[in-house]
Amino acid sequence: MDTLTIGQLARAADVGVETIRFYERRGLLAEPPRRPSGYRQYEPEAADRLRFIRRAKELGFTLDEIGELLALRARPTENRDRVRAAASAKIDDIERRIADLEQMRGVLARLVSACEERSEHADAAMSGCPILEALEPRADRTSRTAEDAQ
Amino acid sequence: MDTLTIGQLARAADVGVETIRFYERRGLLAEPPRRPSGYRQYEPEAADRLRFIRRAKELGFTLDEIGELLALRARPTENRDRVRAAASAKIDDIERRIADLEQMRGVLARLVSACEERSEHADAAMSGCPILEALEPRADRTSRTAEDAQ
DNA sequence: CTTGACTCTGTAGTCGAGTACGGAGTGTAG
DNA sequence: CTACACTCCGTACTCGACTACAGAGTCAAG
Fold first, then answer.
1. Tens of pLDDT, residue by residue, chain B (150 residues)
2. How far lies A127's CA from each of A82, A122, A130, in Å?
């Protein structure tokens, strides 16, 4: 027997049974043939397709994008450019996200080290860890009349 | 007049009116005093608090985490260590995310360039852009009998 | 005084990617 | 033949962070 039930497929691809049906509804997975009982019968390659989906998700593609990728895959050579373009766009996207995260990390790192310095010569007990204060004033401050107990 | 209506505050902090009420429900924003009519009356500092929230969100904190941060802020000096610890944990988190994204980018970049090479000496028309194929086999392959037109 | 913009409350909808559940039918090992 | 695991379908729920809406009341300008 070289077809799989949905549960066997789920174990093979390490996803949930419900996830497989969900992908089918979303059009990411073709409807497989059925046994007379209605049970889905998958070929082992279905697990590859599921792994493809998982891998693409890990690479930051949304399910919609993955659907497009799978559609392109059907006719590969003529769509090479489009696949390449999609991947390039995704790279740009990823680079933006990396840059954002690096900026965040920089800000937090500065604040943590500033905070540590203060802790060491523990005199300035009157001023808190600068992390919180530093978060507040984003670039150009709007008018501040000083003097206000919230 | 130095109090703001919710709409003025929303414009000042560049968030939606509904968002402000949502933050209030979530406990991120204290309930402000009201006019007899029930209208909320905000001090200008409320805009700082909203900017704090926005900034922290940009830094990757969830609203729950921001709530904790704001709670810690109330008693700053005694909580310095905890604030610092929270920020450090967030840095670790950010670094993990950066590493993941860099890996994704690496994979995609390799695939795109491999694809470009093929396009140049455009002989291998039989094999598609390797992006799609390369996505599939995740590390150790499970049995593949070759030969299958899906 | 009227008009129109604003605000109030409470509830419901959105998006993405699933996950859970109920009730019925099926496959199979012992 | 009887358990019991598995599968079917459809619907509803989850999470996070909002966003929209209905219907009523309020404020300020002209």
1. 689 999 999 999 999 999 999 999 999 999 999 999 999 999 999 998 998 898 888 777 889 888 887 877 765 566 678 878 888 888 888 888 788 778 778 877 887 787 666 555 554 444 455 555 544 443 333 333 333 332
2. 56, 11, 8
Å separating the CA of residue A140 from the C1' of nucleotide D22: 39
Q: Where are the beta strands (DSSP E) in A12-98?
A: none
pTM over 0.85: no
Strand partners, B34: B40
Identify from A3, A103, A108, A115 which residue to disrupt to test chain B contact, counting B C-beta atoms within 10 A and taking the largest count.
A108
Nucleotide nearest residue A6, measured CA to C1': D7
CB contact under 8 A, A108 and B102: no
CB A93, CB A60: distance < 8 Å: yes
User: What is d(CA B31, CA B21) in angstroms, rounded to the nearest whole number?
Assistant: 9
Nearest nucleic acid nucleotide to B26, CA to C1' distance: D17
Indicate the SS3 state at residue A129. Answer: coil
Single-letter amino acid, residue A73: R
